## 1
Amino acid sequence: MSILAIPHLEWHVTHSCNFTCQGCGHYTNDGYKEDITIDTLKEWYLLWNKRIRPRELSILGGEPLLNPRIVEIIYMTKEYWNIKEDQEFELVSNGLLFDRIDGLSDALIDTNCILTITKHSKDSNYTRLFDKAINSIDKSGVKYRIHDASENWYLVYTGYGCSIEPIGSDSYEESWDNCPGGQENFQLLDGKIYKCGALAYLPLQKQKYGDALSPKWDPYLKYRPLLPTDSDIDVLEFFTRTAETVCSMCPKNKHYYSKDTPLHSPRYVKSLYDTK
Ligand code: SF4
């Protein structure tokens, strides 16, 4: 069995988040409280680490720094995926908890893991906390970069919580051309690999809300991810597939907007939608 080079693989180490971003593409603005354990992550990695070799590997969430085992996870991930110099190892975070995690800087430096900090908003209360976090990160010596998403976020669904509805499209090809997931952000979840975060984490919303979730999501809940039992041909076909019909879940045009503060509580955000 030969190992297949793929562009990118990412996964949640927690579904919990300390932010409530409007329109979160992974739905983790919705008050989830669930960390992925180290043993579970090892199981997922071992199912794939001899079959695929991602050029980029990204640890994310939710907010990954909420997982209390994050330092061990960073070291273990480097070891289990045998990440080399020609690959990029990344931790994506909102940065606000950076100072609170013992050993985090050392782990990032030791494993050559780059810290990507997403900037979510231009709101002044948020920006003050963001700037403080960046100041600490800058002094720590870790390699980091800022992904400024304060003005170029775009919605893939409307509503919040159980009221979410896909914006949808009459052309899955055009939706794919404007893919909000970046076309290559394959997700590892429960040992399976999904085309994108929007498809991977949608079943969490279904588990949470059951029949209260709009039936407009039903076609996308039928999406079949890549399974560890699938053949090498299936794996190759999966990673070379481009537009597929499930992409009609996403809008065909980009609806850019400037994000509100991500610091509201889920309860407050829910109340805003309930009054609409
Ligand atoms: S469903 Fe298709 S267009 Fe939408 S985020 Fe996923 S891969 Fe991209």
## 2
Amino acid sequence: MSNVKIRPLYEFNMKKSKRIKKDEKVLKNFISIYCRENHLKQGIEVYKNGYCKECYGLLQYALKKNENCPFDPKPQCKHCKVHCYSKEMRQKIRKVMKFSGIYLIKHGRIDLILHYFL
Ligand SMILES: [Zn+2]
């Protein structure tokens, strides 16, 4: 237990992986709010980890894109010139972000938004 070694590669990627982790948390949170309010409460079945099938797919897609982003630091997607999302996925994720952003503000969780975006 005492000799936990961190691989050099990991160390090298520390900054990037930290960013990925943070974005991952935001994506999970926002998609899960959206899914719960728009799908699960409407009776759509849970597929995996508390997401319906569609949202779970969207999350996996977004996480992959996030991880593969060639920019460091990663720009905000809306300001990025390489639109790596497909048109369909881009529309979906924008809808999710907008809905959950508004949801958090309405429910007095502006602290979460600030926490995520500042
Ligand atoms: Zn859903």
